[in-house]
Input
Amino acid sequence: MSSEQYDIIFIGGIQRSGTTFLRGLLNNHKDVLILYECAFYKLLYNKYSNGIEKDSIGQFLDDLYNIRRFRLLGIDRQILKEKLRQHGGLVPYPKSIRLVLDIYREQNKPEAKVVGLKNPNALFHLKFIHELFPEASFLNMIRDPRGVLGSLKKKRTKRGSYDRREAIWMVYKRFRDVVNIHKNKQLIPIQHILYRDLVSNPESTIREICKFIGIIWSPDLLNSNKSEVLNIPENERWQHGLALEKPNTDRISAYKDELDQAEIAITEYLLKDELDYFGMPQPTYRTTYTTYWEVFKIYTYRLQKSLGVACF
Output
């Protein structure tokens, strides 16, 4: 199968929204191959946007393999070097990315009809993706922002880098962006997937995804994500443990145990309208945090002053 005979998809969403979980489910299908998370396709664009000259191939490869997560993909450097040389003359930047995908497919699942790039932040550069690959489509994972914050807190606490203020602010800004993207027509074909639907009604949700990306439904898609092709690098598995399991509805409300009442209330206050837009549960309890909203006016003011940006 030539590089022009498989479709390209992107998976994105706010970090900790379930993009790795979705990647694992889709990789259970014989016709789908999604790379491990890496933004190499964007990181080198500014330097090589005009293409890669024959005498620049060595430098391009050095830059590419200096990206830690790209190295984790295990793509044979010599094979990539030969493919770049065989192209002859200037290699357009999009073609260089296609060649990377070609090799990854050949090494892992040669008959894949859909090859994907998974990068949460891809959601926030859709125009760039469309310019790079006009034929590509996009799967956008949308998770309750409280669930995102709870998962982010767990990850950063393990690393000793959790800052409540910074984390809440990031989730707030990104989730508002998600709503704007959902409301407005995009250049790239995009399917929005609610995390709660994926874990509570996995078959019907994945069937819709299959239609969107043009593959035939298979029961294998409901298997746990422990297949070899999932290929989460060993030193990164600590942050993706739950992505290896089957869909579990307990994850929808797990944030209630992961966050304290202040974190929940602040997030609910800042994103009340956005929660309502997606039909996500509104506050069901009253505490000093949810009763005295003046607390949050002070909070957002201090947040604005400390970060040097406007809250609203």
